[in-house]
Every structure is written in C-alpha cells, then in structure tokens.
Amino acid sequence: MVNIIVIGAGVVGLSSAVSIQREFPGLKVKVMADKFYEETTSIGAAGVFLPMSTNTPGVPIDVLTRWCETSWNAFSKMATSDQASTTGQTLSHGFVLNRTRMTEIPLYAKFVYGFRKMTSEELIRLGVYDNFRFGYEVTTIITNMRKYLTWLMNQFTSNGGEIEKRKLGSLSELCAQCDVVVNCSGLGGRQLCEDKLIYPIRGHLIKVDAPSVKDWIYTDAMAQIFPSDDFTVIGEVRGKEHDYSKTLDPSDSQGIMKRCLRAWPALTGAKILGDWVGLRPMREPVRLETEVMRLPQGTLNVVHNYGHGFNGVALSWGTAVETTEKVKEILSKQPLSKL
Ligand SMILES: Cc1cc2nc3c(=O)[nH]c(=O)nc-3n(C[C@H](O)[C@H](O)[C@H](O)COP(=O)(O)OP(=O)(O)OC[C@H]3O[C@@H](n4cnc5c(N)ncnc54)[C@H](O)[C@@H]3O)c2cc1C
Description:
Elements: E1 4-7, H1 11-23, E2 29-33, H2 61-79, H3 84-87, E3 89-98, E4 114-117, H4 120-126, E5 134-143, H5 145-158, E6 162-165, E7 180-183, H6 189-192, E8 199-209, E9 216-219, E10 224-227, E11 232-235, H7 250-263, E12 271-295, E13 298-308, H8 312-333
Parallel strand pairs: 1-2, 1-7, 2-6, 3-9, 7-13
Antiparallel strand pairs: 3-5, 4-5, 8-11, 8-12, 9-10, 10-11, 12-13
Helix pairs in contact: 1-5, 1-8, 2-8
C-alpha cells in the first residue's frame, strides 16, 4: 500500500510525481508504468518551449497561460542555474518563419527571453527559401529530454519514490491500493479510461550531427530544426492525425530531409544519426480534473492529467503543480490510509 500511485513515467507523470513529493514529503509515492525512459514519447520530444494556444485547443486561455507561466518559471530557473548541464535546459535562439501572415501574437511571446517581429529586409537578409515572408526572432529554452527525464527520475527515487513496471488493464485494479491515483498515461488514457477524445498525432524526427547549426528554425512549411546540446533534430511540424503506426516510412525521411535542407541549406552535409517516430497524445481539451470513481470494490479518487498533445514538455511542470493542488484538495477531505 502506498499513498499515491502515479500512472506514467513520461515527462507528465514524472513531473507530477516529483511535484507531489515536494508538496508532501512524508507521503509514499509510486510511479507505475509499462514503459520507461527510452520507450516513452517524452524521450523523443524536441523539448522546445514554444506553446501556442492553437496547439492546445479547448483549454481556456487564462488556464493555459497559468500552466505555461508555472512551467516557464521552473524551466527558466533550471536553465540559468549551476545545475543546467544536469537538468538539460539550454537558452536557445531561433526563428519562426511563415509563408502566411501570423495574425495573433503567440502565447509563448509573454514568457520567453526574447521575442521580436522580423522585418521583410531581415527575412531577405537571412536568405531562407520557401517564401517565408513573415517571421519572429525568439530566444527560448530547449530541454534535452534524455537529461531531463533522467534528472526527474533521480529526484523521484532519491526522495524515496517507488517504481513498478506494470501494464494496467483498468484503473479499477488500483482500488484499495492507495489514497489517490494520478493518471498521467498519455495516449494510454484511451484504453484506461475508454476516452475516445484522445488520439495520436504522429511525429517523425531525424537526429543529425550538425554542430555548425546553432539556431533553431520552426516553419509553416513542414520543416523544423532544433539543435540541442549534443545533436540536432529535424522534422515535420504537424504529422499525421489518428495514425497509430510507429513504423518508419523511408519516403517520410526523404521528405523531411528535402524540406529541411530547402528551409535551411546550412544543414547540407549533416550526418544522419537515426530516425524516431512518436505519437503525440492529443486531446481537446487536455484532461486535468478530479474523478471520484464509485466501483463495486469501493471508491477510487483519481486526478487525471493527460492529453498534452504538441506541448507536453512546455506544459509539464504547470500541469504537475495543478495536479498536486487537486491531490491536496482530496487529501484535505479524507484521512490518509494507515501504512
Ligand atoms: C515528434 C515530436 C516532437 C515533440 N516536440 C515537442 C516539443 O518540442 N515541445 C513540447 O512541449 N512537446 C513536444 N512534443 C510533445 C510531447 O512529447 C508530449 O506531449 C509528451 O511527451 C507527453 O508526455 P506524457 O508523459 O503525457 O506521455 P508519454 O511520454 O507517452 O508517457 C505515458 C506514460 O504512461 C504509461 N502508460 C500508458 N498506459 C498505461 C497503462 N495502461 N499501464 C501502465 N502504464 C501506462 C506509459 O508506459 C508511459 O510511461 C513532441 C512530440 C513528438 C511526437
């Protein structure tokens, strides 16, 4: 018996588990998941902080802004601390380049270190192709997900957290096993909660060795380039919706290479290190709510935190803190189990 079981060992689950431990140092917390580290979606994310409201539909803008602000403050603190090379955050300068006019100032503009609309002359001077007539120059944070997930896991276990590798068939299996279940199962919510609102948006990235590329590029021409501290990932921007296949399609790889080289010719000659396909857990809206499940075996208190889609890294700490508040609310109304 433990107090809290967090389902999921992706960035959302581990952030929630660590946030709960910080709030309740005396509680026994367990992370339960069938996939860890290398097998999660979170490991492959580009890790850039560029949240946009259009990519997180259905969440009221004040709520989304609050999540982003909490995450940004946490990432910014890590990025500028003496621990940054361990936690994985790097300040990173880049360009958002579009062929069509961007009508709204994006949400991330409120938080990032630098944000500026580029002039047509600057875009011409940059010399990029594909008729990018509109652009922003941005300085944000990129998180190296290998480092960050390792750091989160180390935080969790050194705070006394337990780990169990297990695939759950249903949330009811956890009835009478803990005081609160925190459900951060990402796309797994579709089966665990029979939630038809969550679906995958497939994403394909190619890891390349391009040490001379220092700035990132994010375009509306299905090309994005994100250097991190030890390699660069290039890819499409959106990917296929409702596609569960993680099988690599060589024609996709060719398309990505072609578009990225066209958008940023300085990539020419970059050595390909490998391809990766991940499924973004997309839901409108992100599910962050409490559910009291009345089951034949008893009552199960659940806080759901899944469906972060395109912005799972950027929203991870903000939604983890809000999840912790919901756990706090539940615990304030019921006595803790005697362990
Ligand atoms: C190509 C690509 C690029 C991306 N780039 C960015 C980016 O730059 N910035 C950004 O903010 N976001 C980005 N994302 C999105 C981000 O990766 C996701 O939103 C985020 O990783 C979701 O995290 P998660 O913890 O919810 O899910 P996951 O990492 O998928 O973890 C889910 C966990 O739940 C567990 N689980 C599920 N079902 C069960 C079950 N039945 N029993 C036990 N365990 C279960 C799994 O084992 C796993 O541990 C990108 C995504 C892709 C695909």
